[in-house]
Amino acid sequence: MAGLIKREDIDEVRQRTDIKEVVDGYVTLKGAGLGTFKGLCPFHDERSPSFTVRPQVGRYHCFGCGEDGDAISFVQKMDHSSFHEAVEKLAARIGYELRYEDGGTGPNREEVGKRQRLLDAHKIADEFFRAQLLTAGAAEGRNFLHGRGFDRTAAEQFGVGYAPQGWDSLLKHLRGRGFTDAELKLTGMFSEGNRGIYDRFRGRLIWPIRDIAGDTIGFGARKLYEDDQGPKYLNTPETVLYKKSQVLYGIDLAKRNIAKDRQLVVVEGYTDVMACHLAGVGTAVATCGTAFGTDHIKIARRLLSDDGTGGEVIFTFDGDAAGQKAALRAFEEDQRFVAQTYVAVEPTGADPCDLRQLKGDAAVRDLIGTRRPLFEFAIRASLKRHNLDTVEGRVAALRESAPVVAQIRDSGIRPAYVRELAGWLGMPIEEVSRAVGVAAKRAASGAPAAGTPGAAGSAGAPGAGNGASPGQAGQPAAAPPSDAPIAFMRPDPRDPIAAMERQALEVVIQNPAVLGGEAALSGGAWERFEACHFVTPAYSAVHTAVRAAGLAHAGDPVAWVEGIRQEVPEPLQGLVSELAVVPLPASTPEALQRYCRDILARLFELQITRVKADKMGQLQRLDASAQPEEFQRLNRELMELEMQRRALRMDS
After folding, report:
1. d(Cα 417, Cα 433) in Å, to the nearest integer?
2. Domain boundaries 114-242, CATH class
3. Is-above-0.70 flag for pTM?
4. Per CATH, is 246-373 categorized as 3.40.630.30?
5. pLDDT for 69-100, tens place per residue?
């Protein structure tokens, strides 16, 4: 019988899991300081990376949208799974056997989440189709692959399979593996008639469609036989797993190359993806029966780290009218990218698969190498729609193409295309320049373009340790959530006291060793920290939580941070994650220790200064002749405090 996972096992999975490895499966991360990594947030659309991961403490935090958590919550959100399922997935990943309360052994088949059951069914179907490709009945499928230049090794690399002719081959196989008809109806792999469900894919070549993590979530099927009355390509319909507007075929194979090369090549079909990868263009992906749209762009930008520091997106389209129409649709989405967008069209109209067959691998690479800027393609396409031999045609062409030139982001390239357009139209440069200027003003009068001030995620992250979290420098303090107590409003980063308290908490949460052991300041750093008085309400609550958590788990960074999070009021748990991952201004372990010691020394000196001021006030209000003993006591305490302050300066 299934039960709750034991708490100590959850803690063990959390502690053993490398959160960077988990996040790397979805987001391209880059180093952002000692032990810190950054990438584009998978939870909101942004142009500058603000999603920060700190493996040492096992947490992530987005300084743009505020999402935060550990490896378990990340998997929950990305896979839309339950807490139970996320823990079980991560435990399987590290090979850890979970234990359950009341002698339970984990969920049985009936209790496994719907999503996981669907994934299991797809995995088994994937294996079934691949095995069928090797049977005698799949000769037509193998001939199709061979005729397009794909051998058995290529088929295995891309998981190509075969759906047998007949009505229930897959159905019987999955029923035999324990799946009910009710479950199978949800997979999209079956159709339903008067006599029940039957195989959707029959007598077809099969490509598995996988998500970015490599899980099979659907299939694409190509017709092989003349008597097949269905469409040439038949895909899985929309299901819980498969959303065609969010799927890119080949993304599981291409994601590493996309991140490494800062390049994404978009082709039109499964065989084109295969041809590109086999020819050495390992950044190729394809949409699945739909145009390249907004959701695809979000996936692409995260993998490209589309932050304005380079990167390119290359669309390949057939040279026919449909291909040109697809290219122009892609251009409409161009402004969503910071990366440069290009189009590669083979003069004869051959797609990458045909090109590889006719001219070899080098021709495919050359096609990508001869890419043209997408805006140039769009300009030329607009000119083709007009009769440039007439004045009216040239004026109409200018009106249509001027807004395209106005959209060119590179201010150095835009004037060059003004001159090019003037030459293509046979019109004065000044006239074309005026038309482009008017188009630019019209565009500017609308909503601000992506990347302009005010656009989400455009603020850069200043160095840590200045009291401001990334993306907040010079900005008013963010408003608190509507349900947050007023005492926990985000502190003003311009307040020097709040800045000092924040820096101290960043140091303590990220490097608790500074409070005890060899890295600590002499004289009992933990006791001094406990005695500190924090005046900023939010930071005071975190300080109280640190004291309550104690140093028992200070040697385990993951447990240490989690313990502090459990001690603060819920509205402040995100703040703890933020403090735990913000990069500290140090490039080496030695520099980090110096920084941490200096910050704590400044905190303790501030506390001493406060106490001294209080005692000086008492001393000034005292009548020394009437209370000589009290006068002497206060003077001794002031001297001791001054000695402590000097010792701190010498020690730091």
Report:
1. 10
2. alpha beta
3. no
4. no
5. 999 999 988 876 788 888 988 998 888 888 88
